[in-house]
Amino acid sequence: MSVVAEGEHPSPTLQGFAQLAFRGSVSHLLSLSLFTRAVPMDHDRLELSPEKMRTLGYRVVDLLVDHFADGGDESLGETPSRDELEAHLREDLPEEGTPPEAVLDQVEAEVLPNTMRVDHPRFFGFVPGPNNFVGVLADMLASGFNVFSGTWISGAAAAQIELVVIDWLRTLCGLPEAAGGLFTSGGSMANVTALAAARHARLDDDVTGAVAYCSDQTHTSVDRALRLLGFGPDQLHRVPADDQYRLDPESLEEAIAADRAAGRRPFCIIANAGTTNTGAVDPLPALAALADAEDLWLHVDGAYGAPTVVCKRGQNRLVGIERVDSLTLDPHKWLFQPFEIGGVLVRDEQHLRRAFRLEAEYLEDAVGEEDEVNFSASGIQLTRSFRALKLWMTLKVFGREHVATAVARGFERAEQAERLLRGRPGWTVVTPAQMGIITFRCEPDGWTPDQVDALTRRLIAAVNDEGAAFLTQTTLDGRPVLRLCPINPRTTAKDLEETIARLDALQAEIEVGATPAS
Ligand SMILES: *Cc1c(COP(=O)(O)O)cnc(C)c1O
Q: Which residues carry this modification: N6-(pyridoxal phosphate)lysine (predicted)?
């Protein structure tokens, strides 16, 4: 069966081309028959008719609008087992086409419901992904027009918009004008990009004996980045965090001194602007001063927390961020963008260009004028999608002010959760609300720590099984804790009240035996 039943007439352009090619030299009839043979059927060109594209496109838009308009009522989605999904979705590569309506039916019935809705107002796990419809529209355009954002010659306005949006972020962070950066697929890629710049600037790419420093709360993407850049595991010195899960400058200074005495080459401090575990912010001014004194590169991983510089509360929390050598900041985390858009900023933009500079004969045309920016020259990707468009459109449509209020609400919701928990007997706040994250445990009177651990694990399972809210746990000082990250600006006070009331009701139902279960 044909994918495209109707509309199998040649496009005007090809018709024109055919007429030009055969003008005057062949009979109309002959040209038509040649034409029919020379031009493939539409489905061989992977085309749909304009009517079909509109019908399908409107259906997709309707699905999206229903999704956005109905946020809180719909289910949070399912996480079926591999076996179940194998049974539904395993099939041989289809030799023939299927009507697109049927494929969309299947996406609607079997694919979308079997993914978590990380943009749901009661999705509090990991880092939620509360994207926004304007960003979605931008992604549709970027992918529909397939804008190439690697070189000026192929995507001039895309590069210009990326320059502008990066500059907005640079200004919010208080970095100097010489600073620059680019958008990446996410924070992992931003960290590897920034640390490649650090390696080049400080080590001239020779990693022998070099050491980077971070707290034990640092995201594993940093370990992975250093591994990819040729550093061994012992070349990342994880300093134990202080009692508030921050990197302690004094311990760090001692570690650096000990490494220098042992003949190693300290080159970089990696600090957190909002850890994924607790939202802790390392003491940036003190670490910047230490980096200056020790002549080290200061990279700050703000994948999660740095987007909050868009609001006053974030800026107050992140004093010192203006002193970084490089910074990771993910718009797809707390700036409400669809995946994938991470960002990296570097104090001196030249460091990125120097670290990534290569020449290739097949890209000679792409070099262009001095002021024509080729983002492919400052990072890992050559072919890059037009990621800047979604953040640009979002900031233009809502304005910084409304985006700032939306971010600030995340801080407030976490504080509300803390108040609710402190008001209920038996609940302990492990780390207070900071940067939109709170961690806590239920510790009924007389229970042993092991029993509380078991209760924590069972509570997570119980609340997620019910499906009205989604939470994840993390581990602090070797013990599991509940963790809530309510940064979705569509999360209501009632969403939180109900979730915490439900947790309290569930904990009362859970029996943990005298011998600790786990
Ligand atoms: C999420 C996160 C990362 C990784 O970013 P991705 O966009 O998931 O690749 C790195 N660091 C921190 C602190 C994060 O929270």
A: 333
